[in-house]
Prior knowledge:
- By secondary structure, the chain is mainly α.
- It contains 35 helices and 11 strands.
- A hairpin with a 4-residue loop joins strand 7 and strand 8 (610-614).
- It is globular and about 80 Å long.
- The protein starts with 34 loop residues before the first helix and ends in an 18-residue tail after the last helix.
Amino acid sequence: SPKVTGMVSHPPLLGTQGQPLYGAAGARGRKGVSSAARRRLYALSFACVAACCVIYVAVASQGVAVERRAVELLGEGMDKIDAKYLTAETGDGSDLIKKLQQMWFVGAHGGKPEMKAVSDEARELVAQLVVAPFPEEVKKPISGKTNPCDDFYEFACGSWTEENRHKIPAYKSSVGLAWNQASHRIRDSMEELFKTDEGPVGTYYKACMDLDHVNKQGAEPLKPWLAVVDGITDKKSLVKAVATFNKNNIDNLFSWYVGRDPTDDETRAFFLTQSAVTLPDKTYYTEDSDEMKGHRAKLQESIGHLFGLIGREKPEEEAELVMKLETDIATALDDRVVSRGDHGTVVTWEKVQETTPDWLWQEWLEELTSCSDSPDGGASMCPEGGHPAVLATGKEGGKPLLMENVAFFKKLGPIIKTHTTEAVQALMRWKLVHSAGPSLSEEFLDSLVHLQKDIYGIQQKSPRPRKCYYSTLDTTAWPAAKLYADKVFHRPNMAATSAMLEEIRTQFAAELKVEGWMADEDREAAEDKLHKMFFQVGVPTDAEGKEDWPEKTIALEGLLGHELYPNEMIGDRLQIQEGLRDLTRKPDRRKWGGSTPTAVNAFYGPTNNGLWIPAGILQSPFFDVRNSDARNYGCIGAVLGHEMSHGFDDNGRQYNARGELQDWWSPSTVKGFEKGSECIASVFDSYSIKGRHVQGKLTLGEDIADSGGIKFAYKAFEASGERSPADRRLFFTAFAQTWCSVQKTKNAVAALLSDVHAPNKFRVLGALSQFQPFADAFECPTGSPMSPQAKCSLW
């Protein structure tokens, strides 16, 4: 377990006017509370009884009421009221908090306006009692203006939110308390290393920082790629040009990738999938509201402006062609909820041709798999002989070919047939300029920022050092990760995290044994899957725990130069060629895929049945050996439990212990799972921003993982030592503060429509309001917002 440290010493409890509640020593004297506090608490109790007894019957049906004992104590002396009712009888403040919470609840939710003052007094005192033992850095974000049983996110994050609401940097759309701290810490430690590195990391960073040279280049780096588009004369040359762009990580009309065969953990497959569009979601193209019409108009304007920068003679006319084509593509896209559950349909290339007859699939595949020279003359990164195994996909003896979003591909044919070759060329130019813009001169960056301002609320381009840091971290991801692991990462954190993972797994396994909705044979299979789930913590390792860095860590050595955009394209080609080569390789369950150790995040892979916990998140505020167990389990512990629970969410539960898609649960177990998951989805459906509701089915996997994560982290926390009520409250507060964030409204709407995660506030409310130990810790009356009478439970 992480090192256990004593709770931070705390000052005496204070009343709202600053008077000590228990005296300067922080301990109760013979007379109980101080005289000033006694008067306030007595007045509070009297007002509550006098005004609330008439609504006792009304709220009692919800299981909530002010204790009748308050009425009995009205005739007793002041000291007896202090000692027998208002002060805690157990010595830890819990009884007092419980009584105050009942007063707050009846006053705030009983429909009596005259009770507001009573409710406010109770709320303030609850906040002081709860917060007093917390460390200073935990206290600071908290707002006493909100009762923890009313809106725990506002309680835990309210002061920080108020302070930072208008401090979002102009070049960002959101700021997160914990996540930004960790990311900034990595950046602060890595930027100097980037400046002095003599490998691909330093080469790329220096090329990016030479803004004078980048500005002098203007649109010059795009000319080889624009020439590919200009060379299109017929359908065959169009198909070849699209494949050329595909090999450089620029998709048009549709997309593709190489991944694990979902039904065979020993095999990889080639996947066709639907295209991405410029705006965050298809809603932006299809909704007939003034808001979305405005976004479409701004996009068309931006396309026209950028086309002017690359010298197009009729930029506005071409921009209109792009908008019409992209709108049709967006309209054809599968709904995100449908697409999220699409594991692919096994097909042949003949079937693909039948589904989308207006595309030359064989010609496209031949060009994709060939080792043709890169248009810009840079390294092709292609192995000698190309990729014959990819050509053989979907054929007898070849690797599987799977098509996702079949409905989209059926609609793609008529779209291609309806729109002219000139329209597709215009789309290709737009895809090129939009993807390349961040690596071009400032006039391109400025134009893209105008578009980002409209979509996400971003006001200005990122400062150059910050922009170059993140671009370097993206293009030279693995060399940079190795640099971080060798020079910065505190490796002892790996052992403590691994131990916590095992503790959480133990608690999950114990819960599986008693899940009432699971059939016995399904329970055993689930236990086996949990047991076989592997953990990659910190850095890449093999099954024996030895560090095992991928080939990509050194693949860029000697290939990068002083030109920024060509450097980026070499990195993209490396990624594409690695994917194509993977088709013939036996799947490595432990492979990190798209993530690296610098990520401030964590991941679960359903086709791998494994967890990846990057080094980037194993630092304060998520994990610190100097912090108490309550904070470490509430922060990183909940993250670890979240990822583990993904193995049993609505998607992960469809894969067996080997990571193979299999119908391995009985109908009765599936029915029990669906009942619990539908309940969770309904909770999140009720949340909204600007009149737009969270899509509970879209966010369901993450919501199930949050629910399981907090539960199993809490159980591991309880099992690892003796815990006080203050410890438990700190655990939940640490969890909530992990998600403190502020974001611009436009970004919030975009995320609501496109992100599989619910907004951070709702992640806190949705997970904790359904978890009884949270209500117990904060003495939340049943029926209060954070403790509804009926709670959803799955894992």
